[in-house]
Amino acid sequence: MTIREIAHIANVSPATISLVLNNKPGVSETKRQEILQLLNELNYSTTQRKKHPKQVRKDLLFLKFIKTGFLVEENAGFISRIMDSIECECSYYNYSLRIQVESKNLEAAIRNIDYASVDGIFVIGTELDTCDYPILEKIQVPYVVIDNSMPNFPCNSITMANEEMVNIAVQHLSTLNPPEIGYIHSLFQAQNFEERARGFRSAVQRFGLQFNAAGMFLLEPTLSGSYSGMKKYLENGAPIPKFLFADNDTLAIGCMKALQEFGYKIPEDIKIVGFDDIYLSATCTPPLTTVHVQRTMIGRYAVLLLNDEITTHNPGNIKIRISSSDLVIRKSTC
């Protein structure tokens, strides 16, 4: 039985169970005795958490889960910027941080964590599917999922406000009076892309724009995949709307290269807006107009959220969406 399951039975947070198991302060004596009695009734060993002496400094763990790598590894430093911010913030709070990469069996990775030496865990949820969510219930310490809103699943999470931020991009295109608008959408399903798709459709209606199914281009969210995928559309004679929004910058940049090879000029013939503001968006040709994501803020608030869970043992779940009003206008639209 896991600590989270015991916490559910005791109607307390997993952090409270951890405090009792490790004989730490922060729990009333009455509640401590109640939990110890429950642990005894459940035949849960209270000695298995005492392998390390108290003076051993504990870590925070950054669990980088990679299912395909399309979004975690291929998105030109997007996750790395969040990691840098987390490392900086952990140093401020005097936490040590270690990184674990898992690309095969998430459940086994979580099961094999040495929880006696970990106070809390950051989980990169970019490529988590809904079928993966229940696996996280096996985590025995406080954790925060990053880059996934984790809808309808009880956990702490932090990500960007996708729908609001897509609205900013589409609003910019609407000011250019497009006859119609197209959408470059990821073939790989992810929670962020689902939310951006909803945001796109909502914004199209809000600003009275024209969009139809023929104007949606489904592409692999890598530079090579979006480039080759758009080339196939072009080779098959697909009509290309003069205004395009892409789910992320990687998709937009790959598409621009294909369009340019087929003689399209950007922005004269086609204007395009991306999402994320990765470093390549400022150096590609032409530089890409894009929605800036506050990655540093996501990292900072992830640490604040996890630290709060560890120190105050909040029994609820907090889901944070970081918004941004920053549309970085570059030469792909002007």
Question: Can you walk me through this structure?
Answer:
GO terms for molecular function: DNA-binding transcription factor activity; transcription cis-regulatory region binding. This is Transcriptional regulator. There is one protein chain. This protein is an alpha/beta fold. The chain is built from eleven helices and twelve strands. It has three domains: 1-56, lambda repressor-like DNA-binding domains (434 Repressor (Amino-terminal Domain)); 59-160 and 295-318, Response regulator (Rossmann fold); 162-293, 3-Layer(aba) Sandwich (Rossmann fold). Helix 4 (78-92) crosses helix 11 (295-312). It is elongated, with a radius of gyration of 23 Å. The relative contact order is 0.14.
Task: Lay out the secondary structure.
Layout: H1 3-10, H2 14-21, H3 29-41, E1 59-65, H4 78-92, E2 96-102, H5 106-111, E3 118-124, E4 143-146, E5 156-160, H6 162-174, E6 182-186, H7 191-206, E7 216-219, H8 223-235, E8 243-246, H9 249-261, E9 271-276, H10 280-283, E10 289-292, H11 295-312, E11 319-322, E12 327-328
Parallel strand pairs: 1-2, 1-3, 3-4, 4-5, 5-11, 6-7, 6-8, 8-9, 9-10
Antiparallel strand pairs: 10-12
